[in-house]
Amino acid sequence: MKTDKLKKDDIQLEKVVSELKERLKYKDELNQNLIHRNRELKAKFRLQLSLKSELTEKELLLTVGLESLLLLKKHRYNHIKKEEDWLLLYDAIHILYGDISHIVSSFGLTSQEVKVCYLTYIGITISEQAKVLIVETNTIKRYKNRIKNKLKLGEEILLSVYLSLNTRTVIET
Q: pTM value?
């Protein structure tokens, strides 16, 4: 009788152990799924953070470009020294005035000629351009003539008018 009882208890215990093993296996699968999902979410979160920081950096750079443009329009010229400053200024001009990069990049203009194009485009006079670029006004006039020759514009066409008529609208998303 004791043996029968022990056998029954043994069978019952085996069932419980088997059931516990199944539960443990299921729990392990759930844990693995949670770990995998957690990794996916962390990766998505990192991506979102990097996109946010890129956007913030882009907005910050745009702000610097807009400040440069404002100072330029207020006849304060000594803040635009490095090529990076000019690139930020170009971005601000594209947004506020329209994009002329397709013009200045397609005709083999020098960096000084590109600067003269942008300054002309936003209405900076020849004498002011000379102050910005720290050159003589005759040098600015020579640059403009070279630009017009490269763009194959006749004498009767003003560079500022040509640039204004050939802008592209920039849509920021």
A: 0.61
